[in-house]
Amino acid sequence: MAGCISAKLLAAQGLQVILVDRFKQSPPVFRAEKLEKDQIDLLAKFDLLSQRRPLADPLGVNVNYNDGRITEHHDVEQYGIRYHDTINQLRQEVSKLVEYRVAKVESIVEDPEHPQSQIIHLADAEPLHAPLVIVASGYRSGLLKKRGVQYREDKDLASISYGFDIERPDQSPFDSNAYGYFLKPDKNGIDYITIFRIGETMRANVFTQLKSSDPRVKELKNNTYPALQKYFPDLEKLTDPFQLISKVEMFATYFYQMRTPELNGVVAIGDAYQSVSPTTGTGLSKVLNDVDVLCNVFVPRWFQNQSFDHKEINEFYQFAQKKEADTHSSRSWKWYADPSSRSGLVYRLKQNKGVQWLVQKLKLRKLRH
Ligand SMILES: Cc1cc2nc3c(=O)[nH]c(=O)nc-3n(C[C@H](O)[C@H](O)[C@H](O)COP(=O)(O)OP(=O)(O)OC[C@H]3O[C@@H](n4cnc5c(N)ncnc54)[C@H](O)[C@@H]3O)c2cc1C
């Protein structure tokens, strides 16, 4: 997502861009399957919302079950998507504008003969040369480790997610396009189940902060429906009984963030820079925000100054809009992991509408004086 969209935006600015990926077509992968409002707004800003295929209708009504009561929300603008469908559609569009190479990147090294140039070594292909390389290689790709990049890691901040398709036993339609069942935030580790329509299929995601050694991890994977009935006791009240009609996909993540590297001519974005807990629904926000800041603020500046020095590249990582999105994502993760923690409380305070209003008022007062 980060690489494709960056390529599109930079080609539109008249830059010569080469997009490199291991795969011609993205294979089915378990990643973001629902677009949130802020993500829809950024896709629309990049003129890409209409290129999402299949073009699902907004989910519309989302029936939420929270703290033991049902709260209904109307007009929720969210879309159910299969990640690889979106990526393949984007790639098709982007490859009309930029050269698309299918190759595995093995390493990115500075050209010893040309200080403003990077050499991108590819498996089974001639190397590429460029003044700027955007690394958008996703979760734990390790591509920049060879270049000496280090990561701040917290393996205790971990998260396990499950995804599967469901239907009613008589195949009749569900009452709503989307359901959410949120458990009381505590250290229990199971956060919520979200059920939503992708095209004709109803998809379910279960998000947890369970550690891999927790016996519930296998229970949710191998004995899914009874485990759901156990951990979400009112689920059938919300959705009526259903059955699983696909295998249960499972994906585990832990927290890392790249330490600000001293790299000339190389910049990392999306999951390649910082990982995300799927529970928080902030992965694509982070990706799209990185793309926005990089392509609309920094890349034009670097090319105008013809300078790709690490000091200038590092200004991207320190840019307020970027840092805010990264911090929001990691704080939200910490809050789900431990709602009583200090960062959890800070996160909750920041989310509180009353506090937001007060901060805004204080900022305005400061401006007036
Ligand atoms: C289970 C799960 C559910 C999620 N749900 C949500 C959600 O509901 N909402 C949300 O906002 N976020 C969600 N996320 C997070 C979101 O999916 C990610 O943040 C986002 O997809 C990351 O995009 P990216 O472009 O950084 O990386 P990716 O989409 O992973 O792209 C990386 C690309 O790099 C290529 N690549 C890697 N190494 C090489 C190499 N050496 N050479 C060539 N190519 C290479 C890969 O082939 C791939 O195409 C979820 C994540 C997971 C795991």
UniProtKB/TrEMBL annotation:
Residues 2-295 form the FAD-binding domain. Keywords: Monooxygenase, Oxidoreductase. Signal peptide: none annotated. One of its GO terms (molecular function) is monooxygenase activity. Pfam families: FAD_binding_3. This is FAD-dependent monooxygenase. It comes from Oceaniferula flava.
